[in-house]
Design brief:
Structural class: mainly beta
Oligomer: single chain
Number of strands: 15
Largest sheet: 14 strands, antiparallel, barrel
Strand content: over 45%
Radius of gyration: 20 Å
Shape: globular
């Protein structure tokens, strides 16, 4: 039974790796991870790290760590970025390094950017870590499979002081059209209810061929531009709650908890996600850009 469970987790992990379907509930603040056109959108050197522990309580469940840095250059139309992500699930470890380029123009009281990215995706399956009923089973003993693939993606991103929207397809090409590339459309807006209260609804639609379209809808209420509290729902997966705290004008900390709604809820204690973001110097007031 344990052997079947590990093999089942491996198959699930392999499918997740092939589809590049890492989940980020705080995607609004880590946009560079899903869209290369987001690079430099905050007119500052932005460094963001996200850690996600998914489906806690299930051995071998996905864990994701990401680090991203992006900034405009001296020519503000030109923006660059870099990301590193590492996913571990079951016997599989997946690491990806990406470099991004975004060209931004002023339009409609805001800016529109076209972005491209190129990177190397490495997947390693550690068969030797599987516990089997047969001691020293030669099929699994010290058998590690590693595969590296060059990948390319693209995206568009528009934002102004009140609204943002993006469309992207990370890992769209790997020297041919990637059948399992993720395509996304997302957007949101900020509404002022009073001097001390603002509300930001947002929506993300994710499509992967051969998989159900996933819709993520959420809303955040901001109090005195210091703390944001939000709720969200992701179809076929989870409901979640999160908090976004502005430590100071440049430093933000976010925490998210997912309530698993699928049949995994019998075994899972939910998912945790922590986000840390820091802006190194900026040309606009951070309170006008911190919402997205």
């Amino acid at each position: 039974m344990k052997k079947l469970l590990y093999i089942g987790l491996f198959l699930l992990a392999t499918k997740l790796a092939a589809q590049h379907s890492a989940i980020y509930s705080q995607y609004v603040f880590s946009g560079i991870l899903i869209n290369p056109a987001y690079a430099g959108s905050q007119n500052a050197l932005n460094v963001t790290t996200v850690y996600r522990n998914q489906w806690t309580g299930i051995k071998g469940a996905p864990r994701n760590f990401s680090f991203a840095a992006h900034s405009p250059l001296k020519n503000e139309k030109v923006n660059v970025g870099f990301t590193f992500t590492n996913d571990k699930f079951g016997i599989t470890s997946q690491s990806q390094i990406n470099a991004m380029y975004a060209y931004r123009i002023k339009i409609w009281d805001g800016s529109l950017a076209f972005g491209i990215e190129a990177g190397l995706n490495t997947v390693k399956n550690n068969w030797g870590t599987i516990e089997t009923t047969q001691i020293d089973d030669p099929t699994f003993e010290n058998n590690a499979l590693r595969k590296s693939t060059a990948e390319f993606g693209t995206g568009l991103y528009f934002s102004n002081q009140r609204f943002f929207a993006g469309v992207s397809s990370p890992a769209l090409f790997n020297f041919k059209i990637n059948e399992f590339a993720t395509s996304m459309f997302y957007g949101g807006a900020i509404f002022t209810l009073s001097d001390n209260v603002k509300i930001k609804p947002s929506l993300c639609v994710k499509y992967i061929k051969h998989s159900p379209t996933q819709v993520d809808i959420n809303s955040t209420i901001y109090l005195k531009d210091i703390i944001g509290i939000g709720l969200g729902y992701r179809t076929g997966d989870a409901a979640y709650g999160f908090v976004d705290i502005k430590i100071n004008e440049q430093f933000n900390l976010g925490y998210n908890y997912d309530f698993t709604l699928s049949r995994l809820s019998t075994y899972s204690h939910g998912s945790h996600e922590i986000m840390i973001r820091y802006l190194f110097g900026y040309t606009v007031k951070s309170k006008s850009i911190r919402y997205f």
